[in-house]
Specification:
With about 280 residues, the protein is mostly beta strands. The strands form 4 sheets. Strands 3-9-8-5-6 form a 5-stranded mixed beta sheet, with no helix packed on it. It has a 4-stranded mixed beta sheet with strand order 2-1-4-7, with no helix packed on it. Helix content is about 10%, strand content about 40%.
């Protein structure tokens, strides 16, 4: 599996500071519709530990809220990859070359890393089929968690569930190489649709910066993590292929935030933040 750029290993130091599916049945969805209320998304509970996921074997298709609970001392994300028919997790692990997935595998997102003990979640439309779940964040020894066994698979089964996507009040477009908001973020609760409007996949890692600290402080600390970190991750979305989207529910406190994409570029293999895909924003 891909080994991330060495700078990403420094993010693990943040971790030092700081499950079965419970899905609504189709009968519940029908009852909601009969009552004139839209059906609610399914829920998929994910527990991450060092170095394994606890997830259900099967999930019903449809709009699904995926909730990642990090119970390990390291940071973890839940990168979801849709596999072509007949392909398995073993095929994915064997056929991935460098930083590039096989052509038959599609990144559909997933919750990005919270701090240890924290929770991150996204809502997405899961299509029927076979899926893999990976964590490729490097451990302190530089080895990606997936190489330590942190991968799993699940099957999305057909369903008549027809919950609508959450109604977003803000759209965040991931482009080459920027984060474009439909309107400025403000303090409080928001529903953010995150989508990739680019020819290659992107992610967004959201970092709440410590008081008085900047994005430059955070990036400098990543290269040489001495002393307390100048920020802490608060979620986001993992890699989204072109045209794919996830929805985030966030409750933002006033302050300074950093947005970063660590995914390697298709052309030169350098992480996207080295192409300028990082930004500091003020939430007030």
């Amino acid at each position: 599996m891909p080994v991330q750029h060495p700078l990403r290993t420094a993010v693990i130091a943040l971790a030092m500071t700081a499950v079965a599916a419970c899905a609504p049945t189709d009968e519940v969805a029908s009852a909601d519709s009969a009552a004139g209320e839209p059906a609610a998304p399914h829920e998929m509970q994910v527990v991450a530990r060092d170095f394994a996921f606890e997830i259900p074997d099967t999930v019903a298709a449809g709009m699904t809220t995926i909730r990642l609970q990090n119970e390990g001392p390291d940071m973890h994300h839940f990168w979801i990859v849709k596999l072509a028919e007949g392909k398995t997790l073993d095929h994915l692990l064997a056929e991935t070359r460098g930083d590039k997935l096989p052509d038959w595998a599609v990144s559909v997102g997933g919750p990005n890393t919270p701090v240890p003990g924290g929770v991150s979640q996204v809502t997405m439309d899961l299509e029927p089929g076979n899926y893999a779940a990976l964590c490729v964040i490097p451990a302190p020894d530089g080895i990606p968690h997936v190489a330590k066994g942190m991968s799993s698979s699940f099957v999305v089964t057909p369903s008549d569930h027809r919950a609508p996507a959450p109604r977003a009040d803000i759209v965040l477009s991931l482009v080459d190489y920027d984060f474009q908001f439909s309107q400025p973020l403000t303090a409080g609760e928001h529903v953010i649709e995150v989508k990739t409007d680019a020819p290659q996949e992107h992610e967004v890692v959201m970092v709440r910066l410590a008081e008085g600290k900047t994005l430059n402080d955070f990036m400098t600390w990543m290269q040489k993590p001495n002393g307390p970190p100048p920020g802490a991750p608060v979620g986001g979305t993992v890699g989204l292929a072109p045209g794919r989207s996830n929805t985030l529910n966030v409750n933002l406190e006033p302050g300074e935030y950093a947005l970063i994409c660590f995914i390697p570029d298709h052309k030169d293999g350098r992480p996207h933040f080295m192409h300028g895909m990082m930004r500091q924003i003020t939430v007030s």
